Each structure stands twice: as C-alpha cells, then as structure tokens.
Amino acid sequence: MESVGASLKRTLPELVVSKQELRQAEGSCIVRMKREEGKQNLGFSSRPFVLCGLPVRQPPAGEMRYERRNGDFVLQITGHPSYGLPFGQDRIVPIYLATLAVRQQSQTVRFRTAAEMLETFGMHRGGKEYRRLVAAFERIFGATIFFGTDAFRGTARVVQRSRFSFFSEAQIWYSRDPEQYPVSDQFENVIVLSDEFYREIVAHPIPADMEAVKVLASAPAVLDLFMWLSYRCFVAKGKETIPLFGPRSLASQIGSIEYARPRKFRERLDQWLESIRVLWPECPARISQDGTGLELNRATAVLVEQKVGSKEVCR
C-alpha cells in the first residue's frame, strides 16, 4: 500500500508543497498584509552592507580577501585566518545588531538568548542552527572591514575611508535548550560594537522590513537585492537606470561572482526580481529591453514614519 502523500508526490509532483515553501508563502502574505495596514516590523541595516553585499556563497578555502563596488563606494573585507570570510546567512548578524543598536540607542547591545535571534529570522532552534550561528559570529567578529568612497570634485580626488571591525567586545552565551533563559544579567548576551561601526549605524540607519528579511534570510542574494532596492527606490528622484555590467554596475556590487556571464546574470536577476515582487508587488524595478540596465523609479517598501528613541525614522 502506498500513502496518499507518496502517490501524489510520484504522480503530480507540481502539487506537492514543502514545509519551507509553505512557510515562505505564509511569510509573504504577512509582509504584504502588514505593509497594507501600516504595521511593519521595523529593523535596520548599515550602509556598507546595503550598498555592497557580503559573499553569497562560501569562498574557496584560503581566500581571505573580498571586494565589491557600488559607484564611488568600495567594500573590502579581510577574513580571520581561523574562521574565514563571512558569507551567506552570516549577513543577518549585522542586520540584527544594527537593529538592536538603533532600538536600544546604545553602542552596547544586549539580547537574552541565541534562540531570540533565531526566532527573529524564522530559523529553527535546533543544534544545527545554533552551531551555524556560532560560526557566523566567529566569522563576523574576526573580519576587518574597509569601507569608503572615491569621488572626483573638479581636478581633485576626494577619498573618505574607514577601516573597522564589527565588535570591540562580545560576551555571548549559547544554550542548547531554546526554552532556557538566563537567571541574571551575568548570563545576558552583551556585544559592544566598535566605535566605527556604531558611528556608521547612527549616521546612516537604513530602515528594513524585518518580516521580509525573515522570509528572505535563506536566500542571501535576493535579500541583498531587496534591501538595496528598498533603499535605492526610496531615494530615487524619478526614473533611473542602473547599468548591469561594468565597473559601476549592479553585477559589481552583488555579493557573487558566479554570474559574470551577462546572459546568466540577467536570468538570475530576473528570478530574484520575481521573488521580490511576491513580497513587494509595487516594486518598480525591471530589466531594460536591451538587457543592459535595471530600470527603477521612486517607490517605498517601508512605509510609515516611526519614532525610535529620540530619532524619527522614515520607514
């Protein structure tokens, strides 16, 4: 005897929906509903990682330097020799810490359990995810970040650059039991952000829809594109076209080099945009007819104004 589920999977596989796909569909509905109701869960990201993405996939063994560019901006990351470069889902760590820093209005951020962070991004709270989170903190903690701008004003080049680490100090307690909470402040997770990273967050806090981040946490390239489009469409003054290829192009800022061939990159970009339109149907970004640029216009993915601490932030 064959179960109904096994029979359906064998005869009509297109009708079988995985648990992950079901969670993503439910999450997408929540994102759209909360945007329509003006009740979005407000989070934040820092400018370097919105303008230039971290590596999407794990770099080859021994590769310790990474660079991406966005116009005049350049992001360079040097990995720790013991832990390597940050990549993939590691990008949720700086989003989480930037969000806590803005919400708590403090360079020293606190959270109770690792399970709290996993829950924020809709991740399972099993041992595998805990170990992945520990490894992410090690890679992020060990990385050195170089972020700056190269610009020409008249005949002179203006260079503004900053080299920093994410944290200056961290005391992190990981529990294998997601229901276990610390009994005192002694066991609270405490992270002191570096002066440079905190100043960057305070000076340029970029709002994010945390429900959308949760849906896209397992798709880092789509998450990067969504975060950048949310910001780029908000600051656009009208219809603009971003080149797809070349030294100042979208391909040079996305955290992946696997799509260097133009046709392959356009195909993948079109898939990413389809995923984003499920969450944000009004997203105005489209690949141009000649396939050389990404056309966009002014639009808002994060809608309502909200006061955070003493600062009013446009969502």
Description:
With 315 residues, this protein is α+β, with helices and mostly antiparallel strands. It has one domain. It is built from ten helices and 14 strands. The strands form five sheets. A four-stranded antiparallel sheet has the order 2-3-5-6. A three-stranded antiparallel sheet has the order 4-8-7. Strands 10-12-11 form a three-stranded antiparallel sheet, with helices on one face. A hairpin with a 2-residue loop joins β13 (305-308) and β14 (311-314). It is globular and about 50 Å long. The termini are far apart. Mean pLDDT is 80; it is low at 152-160, 181-185 and 306-315.
Summarize the helices and strands and which ones pair or pack.
Blueprint: H1 4-11, H2 19-37, E1 42-46, H3 47-51, E2 65-70, E3 73-78, H4 92-104, E4 108-111, H5 114-120, H6 127-142, E5 144-153, E6 156-165, E7 167-171, E8 189-193, H7 195-203, E9 205-209, H8 210-216, H9 220-235, E10 240-243, H10 262-279, E11 286-287, E12 293-296, E13 305-308, E14 311-314
Antiparallel strand pairs: 1-9, 2-3, 3-5, 4-8, 5-6, 7-8, 10-12, 11-12, 13-14
